[in-house]
Design brief:
It is a single chain. The protein is α+β, with helices and mostly antiparallel strands. The chain folds into two domains: 2-52 and 265-405, no CATH class; 58-259, no CATH class. It contains 14 helices and 13 strands. The strands form three sheets. The protein has a six-stranded mixed β-barrel. A hairpin with a 2-residue loop joins strand 4 and strand 5. Helix 3 crosses helix 8 (231-246). It is elongated, with a radius of gyration of 31 Å.
Length: 406
């Protein structure tokens, strides 16, 4: 019996091909948008989590709480200092702390001038500090070498900086001017997949301090905890030492101590909000698709009134007519769902491939969740069947005599 219902419903859909395709349009556009947006945001989440796995769970980051738009240290009234760095080093469980500067500077290369951010690497007597920066940022060389102690007017640049920042590519042994001071390129970093890091230029700390006349300030102080220590307990110890160092009360701190988990949680919350907004917009298309199915089913009832009368005159029960129209609307919904899922997967994979070709970034990728795919297929069927409920009831309620007279 069910097989006959499905066959009749399919025949009804097939007889009105153009109308059926137009009806499903809103459904599969909405579902395609939901699948594409969720898969891309899920892929971004996985990629970000991988970045933090690479960073490690034994590191903390300290920065000023007053930072405005831009990188750490931007617009700060009370910046971190060398004194704060020493206080952090005294905290229980801290193995090593290292200060870094992140500043906007004027860059010039082959008569082209622009402004970009540069970041420092320690070049003092401590090799451990330099090694910590290299480890935490996973600096690897593609051409040339890493910066080392004594490289006063030398720089290493990210792969994207070398290829895309200026009109002409920056190559090994080229000269880049920073604030009108010439620096020689001694290394080009291997692509990391992190767009910010791949677009960076790394300079010796002492050289940037001299160029910008910076005394003992720091914009960010990463630190490594001792083996076996609890990262949350070490974070509290660092906060305690910094409150004493900076003379602030608990609850009025002008600094932030962030664990990898804290940073990841903030990013995930932002992604969740963005994903919710985008999915909400896509849901409007699903609503439009549901209205389209309802309109199509109402039209089908009007067009097939006589057919319904004949079926009822031959003994078709009310629930049979109701089931027939519900299955027909459900077929429209599930077909739209299948097309939407396939289209959404194709869109997200295309975005991933294009983004990788253009930026070389591994952050933009598609991750498909089986629950999301199954959920969208079921949702397509449900919205189709629900949209056809009222027209189906109208068809089932027709009396045979009235239907045959029309």
């Amino acid at each position: 019996m069910i097989k006959d219902y499905v066959r009749l419903a399919y025949r009804g859909v097939k007889q009105r091909k153009i109308r059926s395709w137009l009806t499903m349009l809103g459904i599969f556009i909405g579902i395609a948008a939901v699948v594409a947006l969720i898969s891309l945001s899920q892929g971004l989440k996985v990629a970000i989590e991988q970045q933090f796995v690479n960073l490690g769970t034994d590191k903390l980051v300290v920065q000023s709480a007053e930072t405005t738009f831009g990188p750490p240290g931007t617009g700060v009234v009370n910046p971190l200092t060398e004194h704060d760095k020493r206080a952090i080093s005294r905290a229980n469980g801290v193995d090593l702390a290292v200060g870094r500067l992140i500043r906007s500077v004027k860059l010039e290369f082959k008569d082209e001038i622009l402004f970009n951010f540069v970041v420092t690497i320690p070049d003092g007597s401590s090799e451990d500090e330099r090694d910590l920066v290299i480890e935490a940022n996973n600096y690897k060389i593609e051409n040339g070498r890493l910066l080392r102690r004594g490289d006063r007017l030398k720089v290493m640049v990210g792969s994207n900086f070398a290829d895309d920042v200026f009109d002409e590519p920056v190559e090994l042994r080229d000269t880049v001017s920073i604030q009108n001071i010439d620096f020689d390129v001694v290394g080009i970093l291997a692509k990391s997949g992190n767009p910010q890091q791949d677009s960076t230029i790394v300079v010796p700390e002492s050289a940037l301090r001299e160029v910008l006349d910076i005394q003992d300030e720091y914009d960010i102080i990463p630190l490594r905890i001792k083996s076996g220590e609890n990262i949350e307990e070490v974070a509290e110890s660092v906060k305690k030492e910094l409150r004493k160092s900076r003379g602030v009360e608990e609850g009025k701190e002008d600094f932030l101590v962030q664990t990898p988990g804290d940073i990841l949680s903030i990013l995930n919350n932002i992604l969740l909000i963005v994903q919710g907004v985008l999915v909400g917009i896509a849901a409007i298309s699903l609503l439009v698709g549901g209205i389209g199915i309802m309109n199509t089913m109402y039209t089908a009832v009007l067009e097939r009134t006589k057919e319904i009368g004949i079926m009822k005159a031959l003994g078709a029960q009310r629930n049979m007519i109701l089931s027939l129209f519900l299955i027909e609307s459900g077929i429209l919904g599930i077909t739209g769902g299948v097309i939407g899922v396939l289209l959404g997967m194709g869109i997200s994979k295309s975005v991933e491939l294009i983004a990788f070709q253009v930026t070389g970034s591994l952050l933009i990728k598609a991750e498909f969740d089986l629950l999301v795919i199954v959920g969208m297929l079921l949702f397509g069927f449900v919205i189709g069947a629900a949209s056809g409920l009222l027209p189906a009831k109208q068809a089932a309620a027709l009396r045979p005599v009235d239907a045959l007279r029309k």
